[in-house]
Amino acid sequence: MAIESLMQQAGAFVDALTVKPAATDKTGNETAQAVRVPEQGDTVTISEEGRALVAMEKSGESDESDQEKDMDQTIQTLKDRIQKLEEEIKALEDGDLPEDRKQTQLQEKETMLMDLRDQLLKAEQTKLKVTGMADGGGTRANGFGNTAETF
User: What is the average per-residue pLDDT within 35-57?
Assistant: First the structure.
C-alpha cells in the first residue's frame, strides 16, 4: 500500500511537470500566421508613386557623383591651363622680343592668368557646395549651448 501511495504521488508530480496544450493554444496554422504577421506594430504599404520617388532619389545620387566628377575634371583642366600660361609668361620674360611688344604680351597673358585663377576659385567653391562642405573647407559646425549645464 505504501508503494501504491508513493506511485500515485509520483504520477501526480510527473503530470504536474508535463506541459499539456491548453484549449487556448494556437494551432500550427495560427502560429505560422502569427509569425508572418506580427500582432503589434504598423503595416506599411508603399505605393507605385512612392517607389518611383525612391527610384528618382537614387538616380539623383548618381547625378551628384557625376556632377562631382565633372567639377573635378573642370578644376584639373583649369589648373593645367594655368600651369601652361605661367610657362608661357616665363618664356616671354626670357625671350628676345622688343621691350614694348614683350610688355604688351605679358599684360595680356597676366590678365588671362588672373581670369583663369578666378575661374578656378569659383569652380572649387562650387565643388565644395556640391559635396556639402562649407566655403572655408570644413564641415558645417553645430551650435553649442551657452549655459553652464552644457559644460
Answer: 68
Interaxial angle between packed helices 99-130 and 48-94, expressed in degrees from 0 to 180 and rounded to the nearest 10: 160
3-state helix, strand, coil in the chain (%, to 5): 70, 0, 30
145's grid cell: 549651448
Instruction: For residue 102, count other CB atoms closer than 10 A to its CB.
Output: 14
Cα separation, 140 vs 39, in Å, equals 44
Question: pLDDT tens for residues 105-151?
Answer: 999 999 999 999 999 999 888 888 877 765 555 555 555 555 555 55
* 93/77 Cα distance (integer angstroms): 25
